[in-house]
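Shipment paperwork, digital attachment
Item: protein structure file
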Amino acid sequence: MNSKGGMQRREKLTFLNIPHNPLKYSSNVPLLIVIVGPTATGKSELALTLAEHLNLGIISADSRQTYREFNIGTAKPSLAEQRRSAHYLIDICEPIQTLTVAEYQQQAQHLIATIHTLGGIVPLLVGGTGLYINSVVRGLKIPQVAPQPMLRSQLQQLGQIQCYAILQAIDPISAQRIHPNDRVRTLRALEVFYVSGQPISAQQGETPPNYPILYIGLDCQTADALKRRIEARTEKMMALGLLAEVEKLSHKYGPDLPLLKTLGYAEMLQYLAGDISLATAQALTVRHTCQFAKRQRTWFRRNSDIEWFDADAADLGDRVWRRVQDFIRNAGGEGEREG
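Attachment content:
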């Protein structure tokens, strides 16, 4: 649950119009609050601020924060932040391991169920990894087939045209859903079939949870506003020692470690290899992060249940808090002030 590094303490939001003493959730009605949105919009800060006024268990939905030692480049909550509220699904596996979506889903669902049995605690799922979020809130049925690197390599040698033709023959339902040029999903469908003996289409579906869910989305009004946030966070990561972190991880695990090919790490590796300047590496980190944020926005905007809030609004904390209180009351809960 704890990390050995992470970002330094973030600037705290404030709730201006409510007492500081926390609200105790006294109902036995199970609930879930979800905070989503593009990277750098302040999801973690909002979660921590909410936790100071409501007993929350914060469950990370960030695919990179699950890995130990990857701290600065993943904007992982610091130890000080983790002491402010309980955090889960952070630092749960080694960098050389692979955490599948099915494994994440299983752990997240178990945590939520456990928190519900404790009483007085509301689980809060927060992060920007859309598939992680959907695996929980939509109850995705995920084939229990781990990645098969050797099989994938053999299939890739056949080429996408041949692989897609095979998919059409063995799983025509999936072939209708997958674009002929979508190599990743084609390979996954073939992988599942050859390992399990069943089409992936027969193993998919949804079983949504039966408890009320509040979806809160954070975003900026303009792309320029989000870019400024990304630039500021990248600057902060550099000041905290991102380059040293990448150098240490590269020496320990080798530059070919898949996690070192992700945002922030890949660009710094290019600098360490002498391919680009440090200024260029930082600029590329900003550019690639902006591109990633655009994809996140597209993903989350498909969900009409998400209630969006301006990440830069001066009264963000108050507006979200009022919505949380309404949600608790409407779901059958009664808020009681401690003390």
